[in-house]
Amino acid sequence: MRGTGYESILRRQSLRESAARTYARSLPIVPVRARGLTIEGADGRRYLDCLSGAGTLALGHNHPVVLEAIKKVLDSGAPLHVLDLATPVKDAFTSELFATLPGELADDARVQFCGPAGTDAVEAALKLVRTATGRDGLLAFTGAYHGMTAGALAASGGAPDVRVTRLPYPHAYRCPFGTGGERGAELSARWTESLLDDPKSGVTTPAGMIVEAVQGEGGVIPAPDDWMRRMRRITADRAIPLVVDEVQTGVGRTGAFWAVEHSGVVPDVMVLSKAIGGSLPLAVVVYRSSLDAWEPGAHAGTFRGNQLAMAAGTATLAYVRENRLAERAGTLGARILGQLQGLAAAHPCVGDVRGRGLMIGIELVDPDAAGPEDTAPPAAPALALAVQQECLARGLIVELGGRHSAVVRLLPPLTLTDEQATAVLDRFADALAAAERARVPRPSPSRRAPAPVPAPGPSH
C-alpha cells in the first residue's frame, strides 16, 4: 500500500504532530510488535527496550497475564466506561492495591480515581491537601518532576508560582551546598527546618510537601533514607501533609514495592500511576482518611473508571507481589550498578553511576573541562545524546534525563533476565566506547588557543 513504509510514517508524523513531541525525535522507530523486553520495528529490526514506556511497563510489553486480564473483561460483556460507579473489576483492583500499600496507610486509607495520567493525580493530591488544611502554599524540591499540567509543572519548577517554595534536594554528586553525602543531606534538612520555623523567612505553614523518593526525570537521584525520615519528622511535627510521588518509582521499580518502604516512611498521601495500570492509563491518589474533606463532586474525571486498565493493573500488581519481582529488581539492579561502576573506571566521561533497583542513571561529563575545585565536571549533554543514538544503532532503547539531559537512564522491565541484562550492558558499553571515540578532544589547558577577540557590538 502506497505510503505505508516506516519512513513515510515517520515523515507524516513530523508534518502532522506538534513541535512538543519528544521521544519520537530521538527514537525514530515505528514499533509494530512487542513482547517482554523486545520491540520489533516496521523496518524489521529488533530493539531491547530499556525505556519501558517511561517506567510504565513493569512486566514489559504484552505480558500474558496482562493480555489475559484484558481479554477476560472484553469477553465478559462488561461495560468499559462507567465513570466512578462500583464494579467487580474496580473492587478487585482496589483490594489488590490496598494489599500492597504500607500497612499503616492501608488500614486508614481512602482512594480517589483521577484522570488517566500521573499529572492528573498530582493535581488531585495538591487540591486535596489544600482543601484539607485550608492553606495554599506548597513545599517542593529542586530537580523534581511531577507532570505537565499547571499545578504539577509549578511543583516541578517548570513554571513560576508564588505559592511554591523550592527546597534543595540532596544530591551527592552535584550537591547544592558543595559538600555531598550525609553532610549535604543534613544541610538540606536544616534549611527546610529554618524556612518553616523562622518567622522572618517569608514562608508560612504550607498545605503540604511533595517529594520523590527517587528523582526520575531529575537524573535518577535516590533520596537518602535518613533524609526521607527527617522530612517525615519535619512535616509530622508541623502538621504538614507529606505527599510522596510514586508515579515512576512504584510497583517494585526500586527494589521495594513502593520506594518509601526503603526508609520506612509512611506518607499522608501517595500519588500513583504508570505501572499500576499494567500498560493502560490509570492514576489514583491514596491518602489518610483524616484528609478526606472533599465535598461530593469536588474532584472528578470522565475517564477515571477505565475498566481495562483496572483489570490490567490488578494482574500486574498481583504478579509483581506473588513473584517477588521487587526483590528481584533490587538484586539484579545492584549487580547492574556494580558492573556499570566497573565500566566507569575505564571511561573518564562517566561522571557518576547511581540508582535504586531497576531505575538506573549514568551521568556523562566532559572530563577535559574542569570546573571549580572539588566540584563535578560539567555535564555533557551532546555526548549523552550521541550515546543514546549509538545505543539505538545497536538495538538498545534508552532514555535521557537529568538537569542538563546528560544522564542516560535505564528502566528495563522487572521481568529482565540475567541474560538480557548482560546483552543490555554489552550494547551500552559498545555504544559508549563508540560515542567516546567520535568526540573531538578538547585541547589541554597548556595548548589551548587564545580566545578570539569579540567583534564590537551594540552597547546596552
Automatic annotation (TrEMBL):
Key word Transferase present: yes
Keywords, sorted A to Z: Aminotransferase, Pyridoxal phosphate, Transferase
What are the GO MF terms of this UniProt record? Answer: diaminobutyrate-2-oxoglutarate transaminase activity; pyridoxal phosphate binding
- Provide ranges: composition bias, Pro residues: 451-460
Chain segments annotated as transmembrane = none
User: What EC number(s) would the UniProt record show?
Assistant: 2.6.1.76
Q: Which cofactor does it need?
A: pyridoxal 5'-phosphate
Determine if Membrane is one of this entry's keywords. no
Recorded hits in InterPro entries, A to Z, give: Aminotrans_3, Aminotrans_3_PPA_site, Dat, PyrdxlP-dep_Trfase, PyrdxlP-dep_Trfase_major, PyrdxlP-dep_Trfase_small
Q: Which domain of life is it from?
A: Bacteria
Cross-referenced Pfam families: Aminotran_3
- Family note: Belongs to the class-III pyridoxal-phosphate-dependent aminotransferase family.
PANTHER family, per this entry?
A: DIAMINOBUTYRATE--2-OXOGLUTARATE AMINOTRANSFERASE
Please report the name of this protein according to its UniProt entry.
Diaminobutyrate--2-oxoglutarate transaminase
Organism listed in the record: Streptomyces cinereoruber
Name the lineage. Bacteria, Bacillati, Actinomycetota, Actinomycetes, Kitasatosporales
